[in-house]
Design goal:
- The chain is α/β, with parallel strands linked by helices and about 375 residues long.
- It has helices at about 10-15, 15-30, 70-75, 90-100, 120-125, 130-140, 175-185, 205-215, 245-255, 305-310, 315-325, 345-350, 355-365, and strands at about 45, 105-110, 145-150, 165, 200-205, 225-230, 235-240, 260-265, 270-275, 285-290.
- The strands form 2 sheets. The protein has a 6-stranded mixed beta sheet with strand order 1-7-6-10-8-9, sandwiched between helices. A 4-stranded parallel beta sheet has the order 4-3-2-5.
- The N and C termini lie close together (about 10 Å).
């Protein structure tokens, strides 16, 4: 199953609500320097209400001390997976980090949330910061960390305890692990390198929060996600469980919508159309009412080179599109498509409205 962008630049420009959301985001955090990354998209939704949709069991009394082995066993037994929605077991990532031969052990907490339609990490920073700060302190002591850094876009977040705060420019896709590590820590890891094996553990801010719940024996298997009505560029934060249906959660957040479809996935830049039976399971952190994407891969490539210029890992996407459209055989390995970070920038900035990332996904996964 290929996850595809739900929006492109034309979609945003033709929606007054999305354009306004982008302006508000730019006024709030600026665009930042182009030096780390060329792309800027900004948020295309605004938080309609800070009230949480759904019920969550909070942390009653925080535990400040736990053994490393007991904490690792608890994380594994809880079957915690990455809160970015990738489904990868968190305990495997931590074990790789702890067993790495690196001289230093660094924890990098990712609260950048660069997808243009996600807001729940920002909500967590405002509404669960104390619990998150306490968990970072717990991990710093339990795993004997040399350094812990919280990466954010807002200058309003202050460091405390055993971690520092680093404000990064809101460029896209700054939240990708390797770009974030390079920007925050100055470590130039290649895309193919696994950061945990080099002494850098990157965890999403919600993963930190859920580890805190696990340590305090109150983990409930749920997670925070963003739900949205993209027609109105309106968003809410919901707490969902694996068996919750996508359509039911959306209807609780928005009484009605003029959209023709329901989508879910990892954000506006990576999602699929949903059916009435789809549940959140352990994958995905986004659901939205939206119209069919205004994309047409049958349209002719304009040879503008936007997709190549906007690619953060310099894949020659334009050449791939042109050769594929002409049915000319080529060796895909010569284009370094395995470096693709699946950000969808090539599709978003294509003036011909082609789903360029779909071409690359087809080569990668068939």
């Amino acid at each position: 199953m290929h996850l595809n962008p739900l929006i492109n630049k034309k979609t945003v420009r033709s929606n007054a609500f999305m354009k306004n959301a982008q302006k508000l985001e730019e006024k709030k955090n600026g665009k930042g320097s182009r030096k780390p990354l060329k792309n800027y998209i900004g948020k295309i939704v605004c938080l309609e209400s800070s009230e949480l949709i759904g019920q969550e069991s909070g942390i009653p009394d925080f535990i400040y001390k736990v053994s490393k082995d007991n904490l690792l066993a608890a994380i594994e037994n809880a079957n915690l997976t990455g809160m970015s929605g990738n489904g990868f077991p968190v305990h495997k990532k931590i074990n790789a980090f702890l067993s790495s031969g690196s001289g230093k052990k660094i924890l990098l907490i990712n609260a950048v949330e660069c997808d243009p339609a996600l807001l729940h990490d920002e909500w967590l920073l405002k509404n669960r910061f104390n619990e998150i700060a306490q968990t970072i302190d717990l991990l710093a002591k339990t795993f004997s960390l040399d350094k812990a850094v919280l990466a954010v876009k807002s200058e309003s977040v202050e460091s405390c305890g055993n971690f520092s705060v680093c404000v990064v420019p809101p460029r896209y896709p700054m939240g990708e692990e390797h770009f974030l590590i390079r920007r925050v820590l100055g470590i130039p890891l290649e895309i193919k390198n696994i950061p945990a094996e080099h002494g850098v553990l990157v965890l999403n801010i919600q993963s930190i929060y859920q580890i805190g719940k696990i340590a305090n024996q109150c983990y409930d298997g749920g997670r925070f996600i963003t739900i949205a009505d993209l027609i109105k560029a309106s968003a809410r934060v919901a707490y969902v469980y694996p068996n919750d249906t996508v359509s039911c959660v959306l209807s609780r957040g928005f009484s009605e919508s003029k959209a023709d479809s329901v989508y879910f996935g990892h954000g506006a830049m990576a999602c699929v159309k949903s059916t009435s039976a789809d549940t959140f399971s352990k994958y995905g952190n986004f659901a939205a009412y939206a119209n069919e994407p205004k994309m047409n891969s049958a349209s002719k490539c304009r040879r503008c080179g936007n997709c190549t210029r906007k690619c953060p890992v310099n894949i020659k996407a334009a050449k791939i599109v042109q050769l594929t459209d002409k049915n000319k055989p080529f060796d895909s390995t010569s284009f370094d498509i395995d470096k693709c970070v699946k950000c969808g920038s090539c599709t978003y900035f294509c003036p011909a409205l082609k789903n360029v990332s779909g071409y690359i996904a087809e080569l990668l996964y068939g």
